[in-house]
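re: ur question from the group chat, yeah i did fold both. here u go
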Amino acid sequence: MSNLFEGVFTALITPFKNNQIDGEAFRNLIEFQIANGVHGIVPCGTTGESATLSHEEHREVIRLAILAAAGRVKVIAGAGSNSTSESIELARHAQQAGADGALLITPYYNKPGQEGLYQHYRAIAESVQIPLVLYNVPGRTGVDLLPATVARLANMGSIVGLKEATGGMERASTIRRMCGNAITLFSGDDATFLPFLSIGGKGVISVTSNVAPAQMVAIWNAWQAGDAAKALEAHEFLLDLNQKLFCETNPIPVKAAAAMLGLCEPEIRLPLTWLAENNQAIVRATLVKMGLLAAA
């Protein structure tokens, strides 16, 4: 079951309008993703501002995503929390709603040790039947899921993937060597998508593909076709955008970029604030340079 998810998965933004979920914009965003060839969508992750969604809103976003996808692409529902019981509840909801999988960030703020991380994920895996994807992003959570712990968890049948967002190729290679095909490696850092593929990774859970899905898919398609030169060209084409979309805390820049493209309203929830004017100009210029946005 480890190869259940492969390819380009978009870590979806959550569009808001008057501080409410903008269902129409969300559905249109998903159609945009599917039309441009992504293999899956990931609602209610970090990029979806999950930290400021109420439980009711979280469930609604998952429901809307599954309905909009309509079986055409995989849906991996964000279900992470720093509370194990809450994460179990969210994973159960994802399963009941019909998601194809659940994404589980490492418990933030609590800073559990490796045994705590193992027991956290084990408890979730034993409580649901839905396929689970681990998510390691120590820069945001303050805790690092080490390769040895990933290897312990890879022995559980329902844990099928890892979104590794450290950007470290040596780290990714170590995980790959220790786990083999027992777990699917996803890049959680857009600029390392192609390098991940070169060391045995099978996909990306991407921020950039919110606004440039076809361009991210081009990397995957070229690599799958055995055309390393074309994959490298596609990778380098996206480098500037990948960098600019992290000029401030994610998802501030990508949501601004999406608004520039007419994909959502220019609205984000506190404590995040809108992209600074100088950075707006930089992001807009990058989109224009890439041909994604018409020059003003």
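okk and heres the other one u asked abt
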Amino acid sequence: MLKIVLSLLGLLTLYFAVVFIKDYIEASKKGKLENGNFAALGAVGFLTNFFDTLGIGSFAPTTALFKLFKLTSDRTIPGTLNVSMTIPVVAEAFIFITVIQVEPITLLTMLAAATIGAVFGAGIVSKLDEKKVQVGMGIALAVVALVMLASQLKLFPAGGDAIGLTGAKLIIAIVANFILGALMTLGIGLYAPCMALVFALGMSPKVAFPIMMGSCAFLMPAASVKFVKEGAYDRKASLAITIFGTIGVFIAAYIVKSLPLNTLKWLVIIVILYTSVTMFRSAMKKAQGKDNANVA
């Protein structure tokens, strides 16, 4: 069963890679690549995926760095996050699915639910205008920060020792992961809420890693293909983060393995809340600009 899951993931990722590389090459030939700094984008990818492998999550910190250093437009952030993180997250999934045991039915159904949710969500998010993306991401980032804060304050259950679910708990997990998969296409990372879900359902904390990373690994190629075909992403940023982010994953998984992350998590919460506020402010400025233009 595990070999089948990993084989499907490999094929899905290969399909995404072909679509992404083909689009990048065509854009390069037509001179349509973005003007972002490849080295700076690569550094962001390395840093955020390094800590992503250790369980911090990469979407919210990457969004914060995008906004802080103005590395890409707000309009393309959701698509760029999904496309750029796909291969690094697939690498994480291969690592953790093979070393941590999860009951197959629980793993497969939660992965499938997240993937279907993402395909549904990407079809909507890729067509949104910049103001709606800013408002949506402002809300999403605030939710992530609150979930992380609740986790830091130990307001969530500590989890149990189960490696699988049955009955009503399994249904709750499937429905919740479908929703998380859909929300991920807007830029709300799946790691923090999925980890909270796993703990609340009484599963082992270790099981959270293959479930959340596997969920992302399956949903991201499917969702990212939609973003690529719609052109709703930053190509240069995506390539830089893919390359250096994958390097960060392997260094974190095989060399560093663990770090005292408590202080860093508090810093990430502060940065995410700040970025959420800036997203709302950007959306308000855009709305005021349109109102002034209409008055004029």
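fwiw on the second one: The radius of gyration is 18 Å. The chain has one domain: 2-288. idk if thats what u expected
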